[in-house]
């Protein structure tokens, strides 16, 4: 069971843009990592774009399950995990991250924000904390 990506996005008019993201691509070949990360960013934006405000969904994309939660205020979160990762845990994580993000980052910054301008550093910590360590 593995988490690969955790993203916070803003669903505004006319499109969705990434505010902050964390990735764990350590299980991929070194030469594949940047394209895998790009795929995850693109997929997160696409899924958030196609989801209605106030909705939650789980979408299968290749060998991944993408869990999306779009709040009524336009703030969205996407977790990309493998098929075995528990869906309930993903949505609990999204709830927690989006609530904390909304408290720490001003709503005025969401429409114009980008990963370079938004200061919210908790995503990497959540990604590693919620990673399920499998015994070797």
Automatic annotation (TrEMBL):
Residues 8-127 form the Longin domain. The keyword NADP does not apply. InterPro entries: Longin-like_dom_sf, Longin_dom. Pfam families: Longin (PF13774). SUPFAM superfamilies: SNARE-like. One of its GO terms (cellular component) is Golgi apparatus. Its main location: membrane. Belongs to the synaptobrevin family. This is YKT6B protein. It comes from Dasyornis broadbenti (rufous bristle-bird). The gene is Ykt6b.
């Amino acid at each position: 069971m593995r988490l690969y990506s955790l993203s916070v996005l803003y669903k505004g008019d006319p499109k969705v843009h990434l505010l902050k993201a964390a990735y764990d691509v350590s299980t991929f070949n070194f030469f594949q990592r940047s394209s895998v990360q790009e795929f995850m960013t693109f997929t997160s934006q696409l899924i958030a774009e196609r989801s209605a405000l106030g909705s939650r969904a789980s979408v299968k994309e290749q060998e991944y399950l993408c869990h999306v939660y779009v709040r009524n205020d336009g703030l969205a979160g996407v977790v990309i995990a493998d098929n075995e990762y528990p869906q309930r845990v993903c949505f609990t994580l999204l709830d927690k991250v989006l609530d904390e993000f909304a408290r720490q980052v001003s709503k005025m910054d969401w429409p114009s924000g980008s990963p370079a301008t938004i200061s919210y550093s908790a995503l990497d910590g959540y990604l590693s904390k919620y990673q399920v360590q499998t015994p070797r």
